[in-house]
Amino acid sequence: MKEFQVDVAVIGGGPAGLAAALEARKQGIEKVLLLERDTSLGGILQQCIHDGFGLHRFNARLSGGQYAQRFIDQLDGSGIEVKLDTIVIDMTDEKVIYACNPTDGMMRIQCGAIILAMGCRERTASQVLIYGTRPAGVMTAGAAQRYINMEGYLPGKNAVILGSGDIGLIMARRMTLEGIKVKGVYEVMPNPGGLTRNIVQCLDDYGIPLHLSTTVTRIEGKERVERVTVAKVDEKRNVIPGTEEVIDCDLLVLAVGLIPENELSRQAHLEMDRKTRAPLLDNNFMTSCPGIFAAGNVSVVFDLVDYVSLSGEIAARGAAKYLAGKLPEHPQYRTVTHSDRINFIVPQRVELSADEDLTFFMRVTAPYKNARLVGKCGETVICNKRHQAMVPPEMLECTVKVAPQQEIYFSVEEG
Fold it and tell me: Which of 106, 133, 257, 393 lies 20 to 30 Å from 126, alpha-carbon distance?
């Protein structure tokens, strides 16, 4: 087994990992190692040929590949070591990584700090409890995207999409452009799960119907999908008898949500947050294990890649502080609290001594119009920002100045 020792290891070469590795070098960290399981960098962005990336960071409409390439180009001459086709098998709370690849074989990597940037994965049919057979033609939206955009295959001719997540909405348009008939998008919740701009540009502009409070209840087909049954649901998501409808199709695309990829986090016994299903983070995006940080969709599922990159940079700056001995050995925290109109906030806690500008990310629990995001640190108002509309699919980002010792509280106020 080969032995390596590095200052910072970044696990994942997508937008969060790329931004974290580059920021770590900018912070003066000498030995930065970037580990990626694919044969090329960029993560999921490689298969995202649609535009809309980089509007915040670069003030430009880039494809996923173009966005990733802007970071990849900066790796030349940066001194960052990149290992592709590398699978991380295990990670310990002592900051030891076990990995392997065809070139080095098995590796033991002792790290000064680790930044987790493994991204997220899609929920599958078994996770949404659809009854019936298991024929070919049932796949996640990301799999359909890869088939069409990277492999050059059409996965079907007549499609039904379950879930209105952004990838599913984008694939509704993409499949239509490739000649696949999209018979409808079915969403179990009473509100869409994707961004408003994607509903307009990907469904409305192409005449694709969106059915809310409706789900797929059954799949039928022997070797390949032949038909699915859809039905209306009530407010408790129970099927309403008599509303069933059978739709002939040979492709069922699932866009039913994303889950942070956190097997390594659990192996290292990191404390997890029930709402985000990801590690509990502090203001430096450090986890409950000192020296292990998390960024990107492994920390919380973001809606914009610009926020993914920003979180990578926050984690890298935290790693630099940790290596320089600027973080408390046994930090004391105050929990960031919020009203019941907010579903979650990341980071979830802040050091008692923190006296700096901090960025928080959050989602609301329901749609609100003409509302304000209000943040307080003690009795001081640190955020009072009006939004014409707040909806659960869209992440709210807020950078505020916090003071030491004071409680931090966020709320949504209408009117």
Answer: 393
**332-415: CATH topology:** Immunoglobulin-like (2.60.40)
Q: How does pLDDT run across 176-227, given as a tens digit for each residue?
A: 999 999 999 999 999 999 888 899 999 999 999 999 999 999 999 999 999 9
The CATH H-level (homologous superfamily) assignment of domain 124-256 is FAD/NAD(P)-binding domain (3.50.50.60)
- pTM attached to this predicted model: 0.94
The pLDDT score that the predictor gives to residue 132 is 83
pLDDT tens-digit profile of 349-362? 999 999 999 999 99
- Bridge partners, residue 381, by sequence: 376
Rounded CA Rg of the chain: 22
CB half-sphere exposure, 277, CA atoms < 13 A: 13
| Residue 366 contacts residue 340 (beta carbons within 8 Å) | no
**68: helix, strand or coil:** helix
> In angstroms, how far is CA 38 from the centroid of its own chain?
18
Residue 413 sits at φ, ψ, to 5 deg, of -120, 125
Which CATH number, 1.10.10.10, 3.90.1150.10, 3.50.50.60, 3.20.20.80, labels domain 1-122+258-330? Answer: 3.50.50.60
H and E: helices and strands count for the chain: 7, 28
pLDDT at 123: 85
Res 405: pLDDT: 94
- Going by their DSSP bridges, the two strands 87-91 and 120-122 should be labelled as unpaired
Task: Determine the pLDDT at residue 69.
Answer: 97
